[in-house]
Amino acid sequence: MPLTPASSRPVAAGAKLRNSVVQSIANATETNLSFDTVLYDTDGFYSAAAPTRLTIPVGKDGRYLAGTSLEFASNAVGRRLYILYLNGTEPIAVSQTSAVSAGDSEGCLTAVWNAAAGDFITSRVLQSSGAALNVQAYASNPQIPTLWLERLT
After folding, report:
1. How many whole angstroms from its chain centre is CA 44?
2. Handedness of CA 32, 36, 39, 43 (dihedral sign)
3. Residues 6 or more apart from 138 whose CB is under 8 A from it?
4. For residue 123, which of 139, 144, 141 has the smallest C-alpha distance?
5. What residues contact residue 76 under an 8 Å CB cut-off, 6+ apart?
6. For range 74-85, the mean pLDDT
7. Which residue, of 11, 70, 114, 129, is most buried by count of CB atoms within 10 Å of its CB?
8. Phi and psi for 7 in degrees, rounded to 5?
């Protein structure tokens, strides 16, 4: 099969965000992660006025791959729940882990879905350590925490 010239391939559309500071998550309270740094944004998916979401712009309907990665501070008690939400109400990916006695609890989710202009995704967490617990942020690792999406078609 011949290769398609680069000039005739569809232009990629997507965005990737990270948070540069730790975010405290209250015990037993679902919380949207907030993001303050745009790693890239091809078409205005991110707005600083809505720092917890990526929104599909007008003219960018299609099938998307979205993901989130994060890390809770070390704490040996309870469980950690990681959720990607569509439009704030529909979970499109969910993962749950037990706390670990040594080291941080890490979570990573991906989902594919059909999106229309105005649809948005958020990364939400829930933890049951018995007290507030931080979602970590590292200057040396811009991949934690992140929220991203890429248009597939």
Report:
1. 16
2. positive
3. 144
4. 144
5. 99, 100, 101, 102
6. 96
7. 70
8. -70, -20
Contacts of 95-98 with CB under 8 Å at 24 or more apart are: none
How high is the pLDDT of residue 7? 52
Three-state SS annotation for 70-89: EEECCCCCCEEEEEEEECCC
**Cβ–Cβ < 8 Å for 135, 100:** no
Q: Which residues contact 56 (CB under 8 A, 6 or more apart)?
A: 45, 64, 115, 116, 117, 118, 119, 120
- The pLDDT confidence band at residue 5, using thresholds 50, 70 and 90, is low
- The mean pLDDT of 81-92, rounded to a whole number, is 97
- 8 phi, psi to nearest 5 deg: -105, 0
- C-alpha to C-alpha distance for 10 and 13, rounded to whole angstroms: 9
From CA 72, how far away is CA 147, in angstroms rounded? 15
Q: Which amino acid is at 45?
A: F
| pLDDT attached to residue 57 | 98
Tell me the pLDDT of the chain averaged across its residues: 92
Task: Using the structure block, give the residue that is written with the tokens 């990916």.
Answer: 93
